[in-house]
Amino acid sequence: MNLGTEWLVDAEGCSAELLRDIETVRGVCEEVVSALTLRVVGEPVWHQFPQPGGVTGLYLLTESHLACHTFPETGKATFNLYCCRPRPRFDWEAVLQGSLNAKLVTVRTAARGSEATIDQASLESELSTFSAAREVSGR
Amino acid sequence: MNLGTEWLVDAEGCSAELLRDIETVRGVCEEVVSALTLRVVGEPVWHQFPQPGGVTGLYLLTESHLACHTFPETGKATFNLYCCRPRPRFDWEAVLQGSLNAKLVTVRTAARGSEATIDQASLESELSTFSAAREVSGR
To answer: Which chain A residues touch B if contact means CB-CB below 8 Å?
Structure first.
């Protein structure tokens, strides 16, 4: 029996200012939760690291967990979404471009929990590049 | 700039009783934290799901995060350890065999945050099998 799917999402070229704004990053996570009808158990945990650091958020879900970390000093952010129950693929590229002004988003998928499905082939990598048409000043 | 390493750890053939015992699973996480001198921010979050479910634990770390989920109904457990700062490899096989009576432990490693390092080759898979010499009744 498979124990579900984990998405490893890495965003580059984001606005440092947005990566430091805990409400902006929280908004991304809330959009993931809402779009995939995830059920949050208890209160999500958020932490703002001292300058020049970013923020970390952790959501305990009935479906497993959602985690995010931002790194304003390099314009990057990482997300983990682990769902032990089936969920469709979230449109990380569009949301991270729109919310954080990400220029490059990488989404990898890993099957969890079953030896038969754990090998190099179970990890799919997708690369999406944006034309950076949006202006950061628009935010 | 790389944003660190994530270890995806999947254990099979564990004792269902141990997977339901939140103190046992918490003990595994505390051993990870101690062995790698990780710095926990705030209080770890733990949740026990109703029978026949298992437990979930989330640790917000200065070095990123540690997450675990157990599935007693299938004898499995999954762990994520994401360290944005360098840490040595934890001996997951020995600890999960000793603590949860795991018979098979799979450890995968994923580089995070840098497009140049994100591809299939960045994911290393290791399989370790145990002889199951330990008796569950020994616990």
So the answer is: 1, 3, 6, 8, 10, 12, 41-42, 45, 47, 49, 56, 58, 60, 62, 64-65, 67, 69, 71, 74, 76, 78, 80, 82, 84, 104, 106, 108, 110, 112-115, 118-120, 123, 125, 127
Q: What is the pLDDT of residues A48-69, one digit of tens each?
A: 999 889 999 999 999 999 999 9
Instruction: Write out chain A residues lying below 8 Å of B108, CB-based.
Output: 110, 118, 123
Q: Which residues contact B121 (CB under 8 A, 6 or more apart)?
A: none
Distance (Å, whole) CA A137 – CA A139: 5
Residue with tokens 């989920």: B69
Pairing of strands A76-83, A5-12: antiparallel
Q: Cβ(A22)–Cβ(A28) under 8 Å? A: no
Of B32, B115, B90, B132, which is closest to residue A125 (Cα–Cα)?
B115
Mind listing the pLDDT tens digit for each residue in B9-50?
999 999 999 999 999 999 999 999 999 999 999 999 999 999
pTM reported for the whole predicted model: 0.86
C-alpha count within 13 angstroms, C-beta hemisphere, residue B124: 8
ipTM: 0.85
C-beta atoms of B67 and A82 within 8 A: yes
pLDDT for the residue numbered B115: 57
